[in-house]
Structure formats: C-alpha cells, structure tokens
Design brief:
By secondary structure, this protein is α+β, with helices and mostly antiparallel strands. It is built from 3 helices and 16 strands. The strands form 5 sheets. The chain has a 5-stranded antiparallel β-sheet, with helices on one face. A 4-stranded antiparallel β-sheet has the order 12-11-13-16, with helices on one face. A 3-stranded antiparallel β-sheet has the order 6-5-7, with no helix packed on it.
Length: 332
C-alpha cells in the first residue's frame, strides 16, 4: 500500500515591518493625545486656581480697606476729639507723636514716591513702599467698648492702649489697661473704655523677602500686648494687591447735604474737611504667572491709569464707594 504524503502545511502568522510601524505610530499618536489632554487639564486647573485666588484676595482686601476708611475718626461716639489727652509716648513714633495724636482721623498720600512717604510718615521706610500707590492712615477705636458705663464686656489687658472716656466725654485720655481702676470697671461709673488702633495701610513690592516681587497689602499699627509702647513691624495681609487708589467725594453744598458733588484724588486740606465719601480702587494680580497668557491690557483706577505690564499675570480691578460715618475723620 502506498501512503500519500499529506498536503497540509504548517503556517506561522506574524507582523510585517510595515504593520509594526503603523501600530507604533497609532500608539504614539494616542499617547501624545493623552499627554496633551493631561497638560491642558493641568493648565486649566492652574488657571482656575489663580483666578479663584485673585478673586478671593481682591475682595478680602477691598472689604478690609473700605471698612477701615469708613470708620476713620471713630472715637467712641465723641463728636469732638480735640480734648483727648495722654502722658504716654510711643517709641519710634511716626513724625512727632503721631500714633497718640487723635486727629486727623484719616491721612492720605496720593501716589507718593518712597522718599515722600517716608518724610510724611516715618513709620514707612523706602523699602516698604511701592511707589505710585496711595497710602492711607486711619485712627479710630474698635467698634465695641470693652467697658461701657463701668460694665465690662471684655476685660482690658494691662499694656494695651485704650481711650478712657469719663462722663460722656467730659474727660478723655489715652491710657494703658494697667491704669484703669476698679472703680472705672464698676457698673454705674460713667466710664467707657475703648481699645485704640491707629493703622497705616500701604502696598509693598514684596511679600516675605525683599526681591520676591509679590506686591502685597501691608500695614503698621500700634503694638498690642507688649510692655513697651512702639509701632509694630510691618504686617503683610493680602498678597497680589498691586495698587491702591482712593478718591474723595467732596460736598460743596451749604449747608451740608452729605451728598458728594465731585470726587478728587488729591484734595486740598479745605476740600478734605468737606469730604463725605470715598471711592476705593484696588488692582489685584495673580500671585503666580500663568503659562501661555500675556496681560497686554491697561487698567483704570479712577483717574489713575496703570499701563499694560505685558507679563503673564492675571489682573482685575476691584472698587467700591463708602460713606464716612464720622464727621471728624479728617480734622477736629
């Protein structure tokens, strides 16, 4: 018997070079797409984060500054603060006993140079100040009395400075908490005690370290809870605040109708005595640069124009108008 050889053959399937190249190309394309999507998502996240931080910082700074400006010259309900006396002195005080002088309740420097601000308020040194931005100094007491007619709502602390008002303003003086007597803090004493807090608000061109180039809203105020009276070191509050401008609403009516007839960014002393409102403008900037973005816009803060920076930071103008609550804000 003859056996016929089988006609079946073993066949080994595989990829040709062309097929392999095509597969690699498709895989690389898909990987490139995934990486591109990740980078876009990451960039979008960073942009949203900077935008949210910009909004938060700008709104918080505007609320803080406008609140302090509206309360300038508040001395516990006293309409005339010229009679406030004190035997206290402040080490390193701005100019001559600035901190413990009750008036004016507000001072304003319009776009000063660093040297001009240092001359006007020696609390600020050249390195502290960002030139071209306003400086605002506010004097007032806190909103609520620690002691009202001898009744304590909060215990005064020994070294803190207070405005002590006796018999509805018949006698008034700045004193340390340690000077308050038991009789002062006894119900029916006709003595009111308010914590005093003079503050200076300004824009500094750095946040933590000189040269970090993060513009920041800062302040100096009277030292609290320390044995030695002095002005505190600079306290920075909000990063990314690049410029502050304040314009004052002047009431020219006779008698006053407490409605501003015009606004002035650099009023004279006579005009300030008739100021009834203020417009506050803040230019906020993102703390970190944003990749792929160029800020080529200029910004208008009242009558002040801020030229385009042509950098990679987001910016936004925040503004509000406040009425002065105390007629003695600018002089007594």
């Amino acid at each position: 018997m003859r056996i016929r050889p089988s006609s079946a053959r073993w066949v080994q399937n595989g990829m040709t070079l062309i097929e392999m190249i095509i597969a690699l190309a498709i895989g690389a394309f898909m990987m490139l797409g995934a990486v591109s999507l990740f980078l876009q998502s990451h960039t979008s996240f960073l942009q949203d984060e900077e935008t949210a931080r910009l909004q938060e910082n700008g709104r918080w700074a505007l609320r803080l500054v406008s609140r302090e400006i509206s309360m300038a010259g508040f001395f516990g309900g006293m309409m005339d603060a010229t009679g406030i006396t004190t035997t206290l002195t402040v080490a390193g005080d701005c100019d001559t006993n600035w901190a413990l002088s009750p008036g004016p309740g507000m001072e304003h420097l319009d776009n000063p140079s660093a040297s001009a601000a240092a001359a006007a308020l020696s609390c600020l040194t050249n390195v502290d100040l960002l030139a071209g931005s306003d400086v605002v100094a506010v004097k007032r007491v806190k909103d609520t009395a620690h002691v009202f007619d001898g009744n304590q709502s909060a215990a005064p602390t020994a070294p803190t400075i207070y405005l002590r008002v006796e018999e509805y303003g018949a006698n008034s003086s700045f004193v340390k908490g340690s000077s308050l007597t038991t009789a002062d803090k006894t119900a029916g004493s006709m003595v009111d005690v308010w914590e005093y807090q003079p503050q200076i608000f300004f824009i500094r061109d750095y946040s933590f370290t000189d040269g970090d180039n993060i513009p920041t809203l800062c302040r100096r105020r009277l030292t609290r809870n320390e044995a030695t009276l002095a002005m505190d070191s600079v306290e920075c509050l909000v990063e990314g605040i690049e410029n502050m401008q304040v314009e004052f609403g002047i009431d020219t009516s006779t008698p006053f109708d407490y409605s501003p007839d015009y606004y002035d960014a650099s009023p004279t002393s006579a005009e300030l005595s008739r100021a009834v409102a203020a417009k506050v403008y803040l230019l906020a900037r993102s703390v970190q640069p944003v990749a792929g973005y160029t800020d080529d816009r200029s910004y208008q803060l009242g009558t002040t124009t801020i030229a385009a920076a042509n950098d990679r930071f987001y910016r936004k103008v925040f503004q509000t108008t406040v009425m002065f609550r105390n007629s003695g804000a600018f002089g007594f």
